[in-house]
Amino acid sequence: MELLTNKVKTLLENSEDYSCNESWIAVYENDALGQQISGSLQNLISDVRGGASVRVLLDNTIYQADVAHILQGKTVAVQLLQSVARATWNTLKKNGEWEWKLVSTSGFEHLVRYDIGASTFRGEQRSKVAVKWFTKQQSCSKKPILSNDRNGAVLSGSLIDLMTSIKEGSDIRCFSRSSAFPIQSLDMTKSLVSGQNVHHVSVTMDSGAKELVFQNNAYWWFTLHSTIGTRDMSRWTVGEHTSRGHTQDRVDIDWFADPCWKLVFAHDKHGVAKSGSRAKLVTAIKNGARVRVQIPSYRTAEADNLSIRNGHVTAQLLQRLSEKSLTRIANDTSWYWQMISTTGKVMSTLYKVGEHQHVSTNSSYQEIRWFIDTKPWTLVYSHNAQGQALHGSEEGVVRAVQSGAAMRGLYESSPNTGYAFPIQNLRIHGDHVSGQHFNYVSIQNSPTSHYEMQLKPNPYWRFPIFTTQGRLEMRRWSVGQHTLRGHYVGTVSLKWFANY
To answer: What is the CA radius of gyration of the chain?
Structure first.
């Protein structure tokens, strides 16, 4: 694994030239009856099979697809799970509800709502909607870097190539059983790679409508795939610590690698640089870059959010479950959250899935490698807390949303501090845009360090909605409970970055 294969070395060396500057492409558009408006449905299906990321624009709101399903080879349906219910375009519902959508190229939309932190079902809606579909390729071709069958036999590509790509920071997406999905947390040994997907809600085929819908009494469907062909499936009732089954089978799987990442900083367990520099990492974050973090044994994940404190960086990693082994999720599973700092400190905290029950917290100091996204991120707009433009314009944000762009935000309270995060589920309202951010569990300054951040005890989710006018509303909900922990309305200065 220390030597790059020629194929992967070429991909990595040339990544910024051949794929890192590719744009989000409007590949297909359907009307509310499922009729083609523009583009090619077959190209969309081909892109999904080829590991591409998918974004959809409907009702003036753009979403990143969590899971994409291909139905009978002729229809695409996507789960859109990163959304908290709004009262208006720039305010949140008081009672705190998840609002999930299943949207299809047939024009069919199934919307369901559940209380945040509880299993209380708040209603559903079935409708017909026009949808614009955007894709971005994971690599220079639609060919997987590895394809293995259900017994782990290599059908194409190379396990060594996949391992090398992971070691070099690549993002990984998979296609299996007619579904495409991202891998949020990666692990590997000398003989296998395994990865978790944690954003998938149970679905079923409605026999009457002949459409894919969310299942009644829904559950989370967590999966752990491996290159030896195993698929471990752990199911938990939405909003409860109630198991709905834990099974394992074997499946064929295609692994796609995004090589548009580069190592910008590596340090020992004391935070002393081994290569690159912390300053370059901070600069990249302040220029909008995504970040992936790697600790020993090449465990790799993308940071859900990034805090800069006195020139050091702390990454919060939330999209992982506790495991019994690299091929099996723990039976009584917990969320496995980590706070990883450029000081070398790694704090790992476990909370039961669906409960406000703390299991354990431990800390260690480890060697860490930090990778940044080499795709171009453009500052399209920045404003002060009063919503006055400092750079760019609101119109630039509107155009970015309409073109399918992914977006990130940066809040800076001083030159040596900052908070960077993905902006999710962006809605256009006339000349303005509002966005949400979900992947954040309450943090605070470490009392023992001037540089690190750590989880707060008795943690809560923080769900903000902010606008290009500078308005900020925030509601806090206890982890694993439907308990409101605070409501704030104010203003915020923000930088809006776009990857087109």
So the answer is: 21
Taking the alpha carbons of 401, 404, 405, 411 in that order, is the dihedral positive or negative? positive
- Would the CA dihedral through 281, 284, 286, 288 be positive or negative? negative
CA atoms of 147 and 227, how far apart (whole Å): 9
Residues of the chain with confidence (pLDDT) below 70: 1-19, 140-141
* Pairwise CA distance, residues 438 & 123, whole Å: 21
Taking Cα atoms as reference points, which of 465, 284, 496 lies closest to residue 396?
A: 496
Q: How many CB atoms lie within 10 A of CB 321?
A: 22
**pTM score:** 0.95
Distance CA 333, CA 109 (A): 32
Q: Report the C-alpha gap between 115 and 404 in whole angstroms.
A: 29
Amino acid symbol at 384:
N
C-alpha triplet 65, 424, 395: angle, nearest 5°: 115
Could you tell me if 51 and 165 are in contact, meaning their C-beta atoms sit under 8 angstroms apart? no
The two structure tokens encoding residue 198: 């944690």
Q: Are 180 and 196 in contact (CB under 8 A)?
A: no
Which of 112, 170, 167, 114 has the alpha carbon at shortest distance from 144? 170
Let me know: does 292 contact 371? Beta carbons within 8 Å: yes
The Cβ-side half-sphere exposure at 238, using a 13 Å CA radius, reads 25
E strands, 31-176, in order? 36-39, 53-58, 61-64, 67-71, 75-80, 86-88, 91-92, 97-104, 108-115, 121-128, 131-136, 146-148, 154-157, 171-176
Question: What Å distances lie between residue 75 and 251, 287, 500, CA to CA?
Answer: 22, 38, 26
Does residue 95 sit in helix, strand or coil? coil
pLDDT at 290: 98
pLDDT tens sequence across 154-202: 999 999 999 999 999 999 999 999 999 999 999 999 999 999 999 999 9
Alpha helices in 137-227 (DSSP H): 159-167
> Which pair of structure tokens corresponds to residue 67?
């899971």
Q: Is 428 left (phi over 0), alpha (psi -120 to 50) or beta?
A: beta
Which DSSP letter does residue 414 get?
S
Torsions phi, psi of 163, nearest 5? -65, -40
Residue type, position 385, single letter: A
Q: What is the pLDDT of residues 271-314, one digit of tens each?
A: 999 999 999 999 999 999 999 999 998 999 999 999 999 999 99
Dihedral pair phi/psi, residue 255, rounded to 5° = -110, 125
Spatial distance between the Cα atoms of 407 and 288, rounded to a whole number of angstroms: 9
Provide the pairing of β-strand 171-176 with 305-309: unpaired
